[in-house]
Amino acid sequence: MPLLELEALDVCYGDLQVIWALSLAVERGTIACLLGPNGSGKSTIMNSITGLVRPRAGAIRFQGERIDRLPTYEIIERGIAHVLERRRVFPFMSVLDNLLLGSFPPRGKAKRSDQLARVFALFPVLAQRQAQLAGTLSGGEQQMLAIGRGLMARPTLLLVDEPFLGLAPVVIRELLDIFARLNREEGMTILLVEQNVEMALGMSHRGFVLESGRLVIQGPAREVLESVELRQVFLGRP
Ligand SMILES: Nc1ncnc2c1ncn2[C@@H]1O[C@H](COP(=O)(O)OP(=O)(O)OP(=O)(O)O)[C@@H](O)[C@H]1O
Ligand SMILES: [Mg+2]
Fold first, then answer.
1. Ligand 1 atom closest to Cα of 193?
2. C-alpha distance from residue 28 to each of 42, 63, 96, 162, 222 (Å)
3. pLDDT in tens, 110-124
4. Which among 13, 40, 80, 217 has the fewest CB atoms less than 10 Å away?
C-alpha cells in the first residue's frame, strides 16, 4: 500500500478548475518530487493534501485511510507536516517559539525535547540563534526554521513546497544533505515541489510532472530526467 495516494483529484477555485483527474502514489520511505511550470498546480496539490484546499472530486488516502474530509489539524496529527511556499515563519516570535509551535500536535508534544534536540542537531545554526526573532534570520536560516518547525511534529510524510527558492548554492547543498539524511536515517517519506528540475530529480526516487493541472509524466527520477516529454513540458511543444 502506498503511504500517500491521490486518486482522480479535481480541484477548483470557484468555477475555475485547476487540477484535472490527477492520480499519483508516493511509496513509504521514498523521496518524490512534483515538477511543473509556474501555475501548473503544484502548490494546489500540496494544499489539497493538508486540507487547506478542498478537492471537488476524488480521494486522498494516507496510510490507506481517506483524509480528504478531515480538518487540517487532524491530517497533521496523523503524521503529515507541510512546509509552505515562501517559508512563513512567525517573524516576531523567537526561533525557539517558532519551533515549539510545530510540536503542538499530541504526536509532537510527547517527545518535544527529544525532537528539539534532533532539529538542533540537524540545524546547529537554529540552536545558536534560538532566542533571536525569526524575522531577523537570513533567508536560508528561515527556510531551515520552517523545515525544523515541520519536523517538530515528528511527521511520517514531509511535504515541502519550493524549499530552495532564492537560496545560495551552499545553503541548497546543506538542505539537500538534510533531506537525504531524514530519508536515510529516519526513513522519512518526502514529497517536494521544486522548480529546478535537475536538482529535484537528482535527489528523488520518483518524479511527477504537471502541465496545466494534469499529470503528464511520472516514473523513476532518472527516466523522467532523460525523457523527451520533460523537455517538451518545460521548453514548449515542438
Ligand atoms: N486561491 C486561489 N484562487 C484562485 N485561483 C488560484 C488560487 N490559488 C491558485 N490559483 C490558480 O490555480 C493555478 C495553480 O496555482 P498553483 O499555485 O497551484 O501553481 P504552482 O504550480 O504552485 O505555481 P508556482 O510554481 O508559481 O508556485 C494558477 O492558475 C493559479 O492562478
Ligand atoms: Mg506553488
1. 22
2. 20, 9, 30, 21, 19
3. 788 899 999 999 999
4. 13
